[in-house]
From TrEMBL, chain A:
It is found in: Cell membrane. It comes from Fontibacillus panacisegetis. Residues 7-130 form the Na+/H+ antiporter MnhB subunit-related protein domain. InterPro entries: CPA3_antiporter_subunitB, MnhB. Its main location: membrane. NCBIfam families: PRK12573.1. Belongs to the CPA3 antiporters (TC 2.A.63) subunit B family. Keywords: Cell membrane, Membrane, Transmembrane, Transmembrane helix. It comes from the Bacteria. The chain crosses the membrane at residues 7-28, 34-53, 74-94, 114-134. This is Multisubunit sodium/proton antiporter, MrpB subunit. It is a multi-pass membrane protein.
Automatic annotation (TrEMBL), chain B:
This is Multisubunit sodium/proton antiporter, MrpF subunit. Belongs to the CPA3 antiporters (TC 2.A.63) subunit F family. One of its GO terms (molecular function) is sodium:proton antiporter activity. The keyword Transport applies. The chain crosses the membrane at residues 6-25, 37-55, 61-83. The keyword Ion transport applies. GO terms for cellular component: plasma membrane. InterPro entries: MrpF/PhaF-like (IPR007208). It comes from the Bacteria.
Length: 140, 93
């Protein structure tokens, strides 16, 4: 008899959207409030783990065609790239900078280069966490 | 002043509720009882954080409330799948 997952799958369809939105909020909030790359990446990984729990490995792998090993490597490369970019301008390694930009909707916004470093951290955390959980569940 | 007293009394009552749930975690006959008690401990923890952040006059912990809710939900779902089917993440074979 095939087990019935209707309630879990319908709850997951709603909850995954909310968790992903919350993780983006935590990620963008990290400069002035609690949050940042690490916790944003972990909550994104928890949303992906929830999708894996309710839909199974094959179905999620069809829909999210991301190699999480490559994602972790790309994250580390971005984090190192922001460090070396400051060397190219004649400053010490990992120097941060910021500037004020007029964006069309948000108006005068302060954009910091720490955001790019945080993107690298978040991608590395997502790749590592999901990869650990997937490689544990492969074995039996 | 009286508000702080009420908050501290509420925290003590929540601590008593967590202790009662902890008794169920230690003593519970089946593992489903233990999982249910752990989920309930998570909810009591959310309430304690809310009361405590009112006591401290800060809103720095409000993200934590949502995060504990999400993690408690995912952990309970994972334990429920493990108890029912033996595997946490399904695969076709």
């Amino acid at each position: 008899m095939k087990p019935n997952d209707v309630i879990l799958r319908s709850v997951t369809r709603v909850a995954a959207v909310i968790i992903l939105t919350f993780s983006i909020y935590l990620f963008m909030n990290g400069h002035h409030h609690p949050g940042g790359g690490f916790i944003g990446g972990l909550s994104t990984a928890s949303a992906i783990v929830l999708l894996y729990l309710s839909f199974g490995i094959e179905k999620v792998r069809e829909n999210i065609r991301t190699d999480f090993k490559k994602l972790a490597a790309i994250g580390v490369l971005i984090a190192i790239g922001t460090g070396t970019a400051s060397v190219l301008f004649g400053k010490p390694f990992l120097t941060q900078t910021f500037g004020h930009v007029d964006l069309p909707i948000f108006g005068d916004t302060e954009l910091a280069s720490a955001l790019i470093f945080d993107t690298g951290v978040a991608l590395a955390v997502i790749g590592t966490a999901v990869n650990i959980i997937l490689s544990i569940s492969e074995d039996r | 002043m009286i508000l702080e007293t009420i908050m501290i009394i509420a925290l003590c009552l929540l601590m008593l509720a967590i202790l009662a749930n902890l008794y169920r975690v230690v003593k519970g006959p089946s593992s489903a009882d233990r999982v249910q008690a752990l989920d309930s401990i998570g909810i009591n923890l959310i309430a304690s954080i809310a009361v405590y952040s009112v006591l401290l006059h800060t809103h720095a912990f409000f993200d934590l409330i949502l995060l504990i809710g999400i993690l408690s939900f995912i952990g309970t779902v994972a334990f429920a799948r493990f108890i029912e089917r033996g595997v946490v993440i399904e695969r076709k074979r």
